[in-house]
Structure formats: C-alpha cells, structure tokens
Write a structure and sequence with these properties.
The protein has a single domain, classed as Arc Repressor Mutant, subunit A (Orthogonal Bundle). Helix 1 runs antiparallel to helix 2 and helix 3 packs across helix 4. The radius of gyration is 17 Å and the shape is globular. Helix content is 45%, strand content 19%. Strands 6-5-7 form a 3-stranded mixed β-sheet, with no helix packed on it. Strands 1-2 form a two-stranded antiparallel ribbon. It has a two-stranded antiparallel sheet with strand order 3-4. The chain is built from 6 helices and 7 strands.
Length: 159
C-alpha cells in the first residue's frame, strides 16, 4: 500500500475509482473526457502529490500525447473547472481531488519536507471564519485553506 496524503490505502483501487467516478460524471453531464484529460488525471492520481504543469507536460511528451504547454494547461483547466483536480496555490501545482463530483470545501496539508499533500474537508461557514463572515454580513463563496508543516512520516524522521 502507498500513502494517500498521510494515510495508507489501496493505491490501484484509488486510481481506478477516481477515473471511474470522473468518467461517469462526464458521461452523465455530456462532457468530453478526452484521452489527454484522462491521462492527466491518471498521472495526478498515480502520484498523490502536487505536480506542476510542466511536470505533467513531461509525462505527456514522453508518451507522445503532446509537447506544447497548452496541451497540459487545457487539460488541467477542464479538470479544475469541473472539480476533478485542485490547484495548490502555495506550490503553483495541481493534485487530484479525493472527492470528485462532490460539492465540498477542501483543506490542504502540505508537508514541507517530502511534498506530500493530504486533502481534508471543512465547511467554510462553520468555526471562526464563519462567525466572522456572519458578523460582517459577508457570504463566503469560496475558500482555499493550505497549511504547511510536517507529515507524520517526516516528523518521525526529524526526531
């Protein structure tokens, strides 16, 4: 078993399930899940870490699926727009969503040592942020929470 973020799981099942969910969503919503879009998602699911567009482009180039940056950027734009992939702003990189097709507010924990990223969920209108927004009469439409620190494995190796 490989780690997903910071927890052990069946990696091959994770990849297959992620691809199946996105494929079904695209069919149901009449979206084009092209070979390049599928491969980009598969690359991100296989790695379980944030990858930059040029890293993804290198995979595509080596597989004969395109060598120009717009190929990767168009696929990533589609995947992000439909919630299949998230952009990690802190790293200017992308990671496969662990809850594709579901409405959720992700929280990302980024290990500054190994680069693994774990996705969790939270409700933006709960907690202190929600309280502050309500007090100000503000309606939160989107939040991005990225925390940087050390994952359990790297904490253990630092000791």
């Amino acid at each position: 078993m490989d780690s997903i973020g910071f927890a052990k799981h069946d990696h091959s099942h994770c990849i297959a399930t992620g691809l199946d969910k996105v494929d079904a969503y695209c069919r149901a919503n009449k979206l084009q899940f092209t070979a390049v879009r599928r491969r980009v998602l598969e690359i991100l699911l296989q790695n379980h870490r944030a990858l930059g567009a040029y890293e993804i482009l290198e995979y595509l180039r080596n597989e004969g699926l395109g060598s120009q940056p717009p190929v990767a950027y168009r696929a990533l734009d589609f995947l992000v727009t439909h919630g299949f992939v998230h952009k990690i702003e802190r790293l200017n990189a992308f990671i496969a969503c662990m809850h594709p097709g579901e409405t959720h507010t992700p929280v990302f924990m980024i290990c500054r040592n190994c680069g693994n990223v774990a996705e969790s969920q939270r409700e933006p209108m709960q907690g202190q942020l929600g309280e502050a927004a309500r007090a100000a009469g503000f309606l939160i439409e989107r939040t991005v929470v990225e925390a940087e620190g050390l994952c359990p494995k790297c904490q253990g190796s630092a000791a």
